[in-house]
Amino acid sequence: MQIYGVISEYNPFHKGHRYMLAQMRQSGATHIVVCMSGNITQRGDFAVFDKYTRTRCALLNGADLVIELPVTYACAGAERFASGGVFLLNAVGCVQKLCFGSESGSIDDLTAVSQAIKSDNYHTCIQQHLANGMTFAAARQKAVFEQIGALADLLREPNNILAVEYIKALTKIHSPITPCTITRTGASHDSNVPVDHIASASHIREQIYQGNSYDRWIPENTRVLCQSVKNPPDGSRFKKMELAFLYRLRTMNQNDFALLPDMSEGLENRIYRAVRKAVSVEEVLTLAKCKRYTMSRIRRAVLHALLGITQNTYGPLPQYIRVLGFNRNGRDILRLMRQTAALPVIMKSADISHCSNDAKEMFSLECRCDDIYALSGKITGNCGQNFTENIIIL
């Protein structure tokens, strides 16, 4: 077996994702493992469709086994998101290649950037640039430019940034998995202009939120599935949860905000002041935003507050491999994982009872976040879906 892995959100699954999985097959993959975010996403939002729907979409279009990226990694910046996914795919024990999209398309160039970021000189330079008031993105690019010159321009593109983080994460844990990049095709990340029948996930989400047709941008075999979702989005997921967000934020003091993950350089103070003035979540985000902090970082902080994710719950590495779905090829991988997996494989919720206390706490947090997610759709969902929903088997 040639088992390849990919780390994704599939929020939602679209034709560009299907193209990538097809390219992985053409490059030699006989079996594909997807490590996918659950119901909470990297940009600090609720997923447009639940994780079981997105799992089924992936299995219908080229994936063989879908495992879940824990929420503390799924709702995080690029470095942590990548490290969690890489750690889990490495723990599967039989993945030979990690594939990812990039605007660059050159593993050598992306590797050169990743090596520059790991250098001691880089860390000295970036701290100096941050101290001079640069944004993190600008400081990172300038620090890399000072190491390797024009290749630093790769860090202008979001998929290149994530690709660099994947390579860094593989190197850090001395993984035997080989990185492999596929040149991104179609619309660019967050673009509102579809290209060659491929639209960005953000454009498709916007169409869904506005109640517009999005059929042309997703695979034909998933259209009925997506349209039949039991808990469809009702405009922005934040909008449905607005009073809950504001209640939670207004009951927090400055120390509470300081305990949220990824708080530094006074961000907790900006958010606290914004909360004292704002009458909507959007206004909180707008007031807290400045040149130094990206909107995604602020959205993650606000969502962490609602979900009760703090620095204390943020720390542990993934403690188990949670299976969301598989097909016939996926059975082959699971059979092999009985000998190769470095972490417990969770096929049903009861399996967690045999795991460590850290694993139980991580799973409990995942369940709590999913219960909150169930409140965010047009129809209020039930608690306990991690215990009532079955693994998707095709």
What would your notes on this structure say?
By secondary structure, the chain is an alpha/beta fold. It folds into two domains: 3-103 and 181-234 and 315-393, Rossmann fold (3-Layer(aba) Sandwich); 237-313, no CATH class. It has 20 helices and eight strands. Strands 1, 2, 3, 4, 5, 6, 7 and 8 form an eight-stranded mixed beta sheet that branches. Helix 18 (328-340) links the parallel strand 6 (321-326) and strand 7. Helix 6 (120-131) packs across helix 7 (136-148). The longest helix is centred in the C-terminal third of the chain and has 17 residues, at 357-373.
Short description:
This protein has 394 residues and is an alpha/beta fold. It has 20 helices and eight strands. Strands 1, 2, 3, 4, 5, 6, 7 and 8 form an eight-stranded mixed sheet that branches.
